[in-house]
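ingest -> fold -> write
write: protein_1
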Amino acid sequence: MEFKDEVADRDPRLGQTVRLPGYKRVNGKNVVGVDFYGGVTGFQYHKFVMPEDNASSDRLDKSYNDLPVYRMGEVYLNYAEAMAELGTLTQADLDKSVNLLRKRVGMPDLKLADANSKPDWYLASAEYGYPNVSGPNKGIILEIRRERMVELAQESFRWADLDRWKAGKCIEQVFHGPYFPGTGEYDLDGDGKLDLCIYTGNKPSSKATYIMQLDKEIFLSEGTKGYYEPYHSWAHQFDEARDYYFPIPLNDITLNNNLTQNPGWDDIDALIAVSFLFVSCKKESDTRARAVLTDVSFVDFPATGSAEQTIQVFADADWVSEAPEWMTVTPSTGTGSMTVKITATDNIAPDGKMDSPRKGTLIFKGATLISTVELPVTQAGDKYRGLTVSSVSDVAKKADGEFVALASSQVVAVNGNAYVLSDGTTQIYVTGDGVKPGDQVTLNGEKE
């Protein structure tokens, strides 16, 4: 069963969680093909993506989509779970909670008697579900947990749910992506375009978007066939005695001598866990770090004469760094926690004058995207170097934060510590004083 068959005739909410064949963005007119690398598991996110006219802003650090903090779907599911755990749940309770969500998408009602008479083996198994659920309401509790996964996917509830259910061992269940019956070329969504080619031996000539070598770039659960295993080189572990508790941040312990670390967390694990909650361990063949942190969140240099700076890198294994060409990192690779020295060259242009401000990213990374720290790096410079003189109309079109050089423009109004400039077609508001209507003003500054 390949991807297009695997996702056919499913709960419609699947198509609002991951991208299915025929997917279009919000307000989009164009069908967007499946991108196998669009998500860690090979399934590409749908929920919370940006509209078609701003597709480049899907990333967490760029998206301006609102994330619901509390919504009725969660209220209904909380109510049904509480009633089921108390042992007082009735069919009427289901009908005014979970079944409202199912009706919304055209799914049949959840029946209390049917669920309890034959609990779903999949949901009850240690391999896929929750083996610690028991009692007369076992079947319906399992079904409500399934509903939470379906309805609240990608809304940041999963960890709290597992914690509440004392089901942390679910972290150790194997993550699987789409199924592949073997090597070859795959049109994942049936749109007539090749999306993926899996091969052994020499790299073939293929028009597929991604060409991946089996057992090196892609791993399947049964060797030459099976489900895609995105974490093949990793074995997730959950410590029942430790991982239901968060580590207490080291800064808090430093500030308050009466605080002691929660059981099982030593100092380095506490630092790592803050950004890597789902604790994992690497297999013997992979020596790269599972988590990397630094003691700074950004780096800034003066334009010239910058002093050497130090960064403390915290890691549990091997890490490497990447830096802009005008920076030096010493050492550039390492193992475990250590102090790193960074320097920057003077920001001088070939003509001997100060160049424009520099921006870049300093990266420290281990084995995965999760074990990667990206630090914004800036270096001072001449903010106005090379700027084209702009009219009021041009300035009005520029993005906030851009530096501009404004051509001579007329003051048309004054209001306290601000005034209005015009070029005859457009007006802009400027903070400042010392001018009067009719004056001609030339400005350099940052648009806000």
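write: protein_2
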Amino acid sequence: MLAKTYGSAVYGVDAYKITVEVNVGQGTKFFMVGLPDSAVKESEQRVESAIKNLGYRMPRQKVVVNLAPADIRKEGSAYDLPIALGILKASEQILAEKLEEYVIMGELALDGELRPIKGWQKLFNIEVWIVKVGQGNITACLSPSFSLSLLMLAFLSRKSKTLLLGWN
């Protein structure tokens, strides 16, 4: 099954919307494509540990993570959260039907807690940010005391288009 969400990358002085696609299918390996740097490649280990420590399972199938466009270098650990959410949705462990409507960035600790994102924290003074695609406003902000499981609860139970869980 395919899941899609969005992230962001800074290249020079420009910011780009990055499509984070996750497909879970037949096979047994984990692949990450789309010009990821070492920190992004290492997210496989952080994401797997976080998923397991939050009571979910890492799929024992072929997992392909595509970070598009492929010609822009993706750097840092801020792709952990969209990759984790994509894996959980693609493996049908969560519903998150509107996941593709958001730009999501956040680093995960091994226990699933959210960590600050370098650079973005200075811009927005928040630890994790989620922006509604197609609009310029922030629709949800989370502090580092929130875990991935609380974020998923928010996605699964929210009724309105705007969600504000906490400021740093």
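write: annotation protein_2
The chain has five helices and nine strands.
The first helix runs from residue 38 to 41.
pipeline exit 0
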